Amino acid sequence: MIDVTHEKRLYHLLKNCGHTSHTHLYYLGDKEWFWDTAHEALIVYRSVGKRRIVLGDPIGKSPESTRRVVEQFMTDCLENKRIPVFYQAKAAFLPLYEKLGLQFVKIGEEAQVDLSSFHLNGKHWLKLRNRINKFLRNGYSFQVMLPPYSDSFLNRLQAISDEWLSDRKEKSFSVGSFSPDYVSRFPVAVLVGPDGNYEAFVSIAGDHHPLRAAQEEAPVCRKITVDLMRYTKACPHGTMDVLFISLFKWAQENKYDFCSLGMAPLANAGDLLIVKLLYKYGNKLYNFKGLYDYKNKFAPKWEDVYLVYQPATIPITVALLALIIHRPCANQLSQDKITSKLYMNGSSISRKRA
After folding, report:
1. Dist CA 185 CA 7 (whole Å)
2. Assigned fold of 116-256
3. Which of 30, 86, 196, 315 is 20 to 30 Å from 309 at the Cα level?
4. pLDDT tens-place string over residues 77-102
């Protein structure tokens, strides 16, 4: 659960600066929040041992506010003998991190579909066009549902999610996890079967504010992110292809600019030995190459993603990252343990949420 005051503050900040590929994950309830002194920029992180592992880069109203919150966060880490780590950072922030004495290594690439140029014309897209037409002939349809949701709808999504998970545990931190409260924050794209039942769904995170009037200042880039992706065992082959293509078309019609499909871990990653070993041995378990190839079929633009860390700390940092991502969501922070830190007058204070 997120404190109402902080949620309102975040709402206005996102309306001003726009959403990133990670901002929807702030609502999972498993992270601590660090605001700058002016409440104009925010960092979210998870404490693991002596490390504070930040998800993504800071968000802020201006370059000055984002620089300020990073500097204040670094100072707070130093004062409290904590080690800062930035996971899934983007290239634009690397000069700032490097200036503050941090190192970085590429750990993957994020797939972003440019909706202004996406199309299904030409021979390259023939297979996907045929697949969509087959689904339509067989009575499948696509819908985007908007909150608030009925209990019956949420119960159906829960059933699909449970069937998809089977005996697996939900992940956390850098990926979404199913809960009625969390899913109810976002639009949900569904694939409806011939019998009228929902058979697959994708939750759609991102900027869902209405477009501003033409005479107002131009809005920030409108971006959506594919979050939860779940389907039943009875779904035909190609279900997610059809759901994604339908989602892209819906997003185009609703004037979105980009759709993020998330990161392909270790895609064209850095040359540190530990990164090479992770790809070599982790690929057998997680099929990193298969994930990259699947996302690449939608012709996305690939954006480099980095791990930012203090010198000589990367081996333990990588191990702790694996721990928190694969930790079941039952270990989320309870509301009375989630703290929001505010840096003031050269020192930080922690406020427990009511």
Report:
1. 12
2. Aminopeptidase (3.40.630)
3. 30
4. 999 999 999 999 999 999 999 999 99
